[in-house]
Amino acid sequence: MSLDHPAIAIIGSGAVGGYYGSRLAQAGHDLHFLLRSDFDAVRANGWIIHSCDGDFSLTPDQFHAYNEPSRMPPADLVLVTLKATSNDQLGLLISPLLKDDTIILTLQNGLGNEEQLARLFGSHRIIGGLAFVCINRGQPGHIHHTDHGLIAIGEYQGPPTPRLRRLADIFNSSRIRCRILENLRYGRWEKLLWNIPFNGLGAAMDLTTDRLLASSAGIDLVRDIMKEVLAVAHADGVDLDPKLIDQKIDHTRTMQAYRTSMQIDRQTGRPMELDAIFGQPLRLAAAHNVPIPIVQLLARQLRTLNNE
Amino acid sequence: MSLDHPAIAIIGSGAVGGYYGSRLAQAGHDLHFLLRSDFDAVRANGWIIHSCDGDFSLTPDQFHAYNEPSRMPPADLVLVTLKATSNDQLGLLISPLLKDDTIILTLQNGLGNEEQLARLFGSHRIIGGLAFVCINRGQPGHIHHTDHGLIAIGEYQGPPTPRLRRLADIFNSSRIRCRILENLRYGRWEKLLWNIPFNGLGAAMDLTTDRLLASSAGIDLVRDIMKEVLAVAHADGVDLDPKLIDQKIDHTRTMQAYRTSMQIDRQTGRPMELDAIFGQPLRLAAAHNVPIPIVQLLARQLRTLNNE
Q1: E-assigned strand segments in chain A
Q2: Interface of B with A in 56-75 (CB under 8 A)
Q3: Across the interface, do B220 and A307 touch by the CB < 8 Å criterion?
Q4: Band of the pLDDT at B154, cuts 50, 70, 90?
Q5: Interface contact A300, partner B, CB < 8 A
Q6: How many CB atoms lie under 10 A from the CB of residue B65?
Q7: CA B38 – CA B45 distance, rounded (Å)
Q8: What is residue A255's predicted lDDT score, i.e. its pLDDT?
Q9: How far is residue A262's CA from residue A205's CA, in Å, rounded to a whole number?
Q10: How many Å separate Cα B223 from the centre of its chain?
Q11: Which one, of B35, B2, B15, lies nearest residue B261 by Cα?
Q12: What is the mean pLDDT of chain A?
C-alpha cells in the first residue's frame, strides 16, 4: 500500500469531490480529478473555493484534470464522490485506475454504495465515508462551502485498520476534520436519520430546513420520520441512540435556511438520489415487516417528483 | 320569499364571488358586492372578467359595491363566497343583511360551512353549493376564469324545494350552468374526493395537477388518497361511486397545468383552507376509526406549511 505519497483520484468532481480534493491538493497531495461539466473551466482556471473556513484557490498546475478515466494514472486512493444516481457507471469509471492495492473510499450518500463497489472491485478495497458538509456548486470551477465539513470513515469489513488511521491522518493534516468510525453501518444509519426526513421533506415539499422546524407540526413530522428510521435501523441490526433525534434537530437549527441536496436537485431539475437514500431502507423495512408509513409516503411523493 | 326580483348580496368578492356575481349582474340582477382588498378598484372601474366563455366587463353603475356590511340593504339572497379561513367573521358580515325570508347560499369549499351558518342563522335559510370552476384573481377588479364553471346546489335539510329550483333558474338564465343536488352531502363528499388529493398534494408539494398525473407514482398516490376519502365518506353515511375515482382523474387531465387554490395560497403566502377541506374529514375518520394514513400525513405537511 502506498499511502505515503498517494496518487489520489477523485471520481465525480462536483461540490463534494471538488472541495475535499482541493483541500488535499492544497496540502500538497497528488490529485487527479475526473470532471464532466466543469472540465474546461477547471483545467483553464483551476478551482476557486469559497469556504466558511477560509477562501482559497488552486491554479491548474497544482493538480491534474481529466475528462476521460482512461487517461488517468493508476491511483493509490480512489475517492468516489459521484452522485449515487450515476452508480451504473462505477465500473467504467474506476476500473482503469486500479492497482492491486488501490483503496476505494466512497463518500456517497445513502445505503448500498459500498456493497456495489465491493461486488465490482472486491470487499478488501472498500472504505466507507460520510461527509457532513454544507456545500454547493457555483459557476463552473467555483464551490461554495457554507458550513461544517467533517468526514467520518470506516472499514467496510470489520473494525478500524492501520490503513484507515493513515487515511484519517491524510485528511486531518489537509484541514479536513476526519474521525474514525468503529462501525460504518452505524454511521450510515446515523446519517440516514438526518437525510431521510430533511432531504425527503425538503425535496417533497420544497422547503428549507428552517421552514421544516418553524412549527410544531413540522417538528413532530421530522421526529416521527426519525422514529421510523430508528425502527428500520434496529431491524437491520443497528441500534441508534434515541437521543440522536433531539440532537439532530437541535443541530439542524444551527444550519439556518439550509437547502438539502435533494431540494436543490428538485429545483434544478436534476435527478434525486432516491434509491441511495430511500430505496434500501424501504427494502429492509419490507423484508423485516417494519411499518414505516410516513417514509413510504414521502418516497411516493419523491417518485412523483422524479416522474417515475 | 322574493326571488322574482331578488336583491343579491355577495359576501366575499374574491374570484368566485366576483365571477358569479358579475354573471348575475350582467343578466340584469340587483347585485350588492361586499369587497375588501378590491373595493377601490371595483367601485372606480367595475369588474373586468377574462372568461373562457367570453370576456365581459361591468361598469360601476351596473352593481353596488360596499366595504362595510352595515351600509348594505337587506338581501333576498346572500351568496357566501368568503374563504372558509374567514368563517369566524360570518356572523358579523351576514347579520346586517338578513330579513325573515333571506336565503343564504354558501359556495365555500369543504365540510362544515352549512353547519356553521345554520348555527348562526337557522337551518331553514341554508342552501349549500359547490363551484366547479377554474378561476383566479388578477390585478384588482380583474378575474381570470380559465375553465369550467358549473355550480351544483342542494338544500341543507332535505330534498330539493321550489326555492332551490327557482335559484337554479336564476343561475341558468345568467349563463351560470347550475344543477340541482338531490343530496348535498353526497355532492360535498364528491368534491372533497377531488379537493383532498389535488389541493392537498398540489399545496404540500407545490405541483400543478398535470405534474401530479405525469407519472404512475403520482397517479397511484392520487388514487390511494381518493380511496381513503371514499372510506371516510362511507363512514359518514355517503356511499360515493368508486367509478368516480377514474372519472375525476380523467377529468383532471383535461385541466392541464392547473394550480389549485391551496397551491396558489401557498405560493402567495395566504392562509390555506385547511380546516374546511381536511379538518372535518380527519375528525370523522377519527370518530369512526377509519384509517386514512396518507390524508393524515398530507394534513401534517400542510400544517407545517401553515406554520401551525
Answers
A1: 7-11, 30-34, 47-51, 56-58, 64-66, 77-80, 103-106, 126-137, 142-155, 178-180
A2: none
A3: no
A4: very high
A5: yes
A6: 23
A7: 10
A8: 82
A9: 11
A10: 23
A11: B15
A12: 95
Compute the C-alpha angle A199/A203/A207, nearest 5°: 95
Contact residues on chain A for B214, CB-CB shorter than 8 A: 307
Which residues have C-beta within 8 Å of that of residue B140, sequence separation ≥ 6?
A: B37, B38, B40, B41, B42
Question: In terms of Cα–Cα distance, which of B105, B104, B130 is closest to B184?
Answer: B130
Shortest distance, CA A107 to any CA of chain B (angstroms)? 29
For residue B293, list chain A residues with Cβ-Cβ distance below 8 A: 293, 297
Which one of B301, B307, B308 makes the best mutation probe of the A interface by having the most chain A beta carbons within 10 Å?
A: B301
Predicted local distance difference test score (pLDDT) of residue A67: 96
- CB atoms closer than 10 angstroms to residue A298: 26
**pLDDT of res. B147:** 86
Q: Which domains does chain A carry? A: 7-182 (3.40.50.720), 186-305 (1.10.1040.10)
Q: What is the ipTM of this complex?
A: 0.83
Phi, psi of B34 (to 5 degrees): -95, 120
With H, G, I as helix, E, B as strand and everything else as coil, classify residue B158.
coil
- Residues B294 and B308: their CA atoms lie apart, in Å, by 19
C-alpha cell at A146: 457554507
Q: Is A274 exposed, middle or buried (0-12, 13-18, 19+ CB in 10 A)?
A: buried
Rg (CA), chain A: 19
Going from the C-alpha of B153 to that of each of A43, A254, B7, B150, the distances in angstroms are: 69, 53, 19, 10
Give the predicted TM-score (pTM) of the model: 0.86
DSSP code at position B70: G
Rounded Cα distance, A230 and A284, in Å: 12
Helix (H) and strand (E) counts for chain B? 13, 10
Percentage of chain A exceeding pLDDT 90 = 90
Across the A:B interface, residue pairs with CB atoms under 8 Å apart total 73
Alpha helices in A95-213, H assignment, sequence order? 113-121, 162-172, 184-205, 209-212
Residue A152 grid cell: 467520518
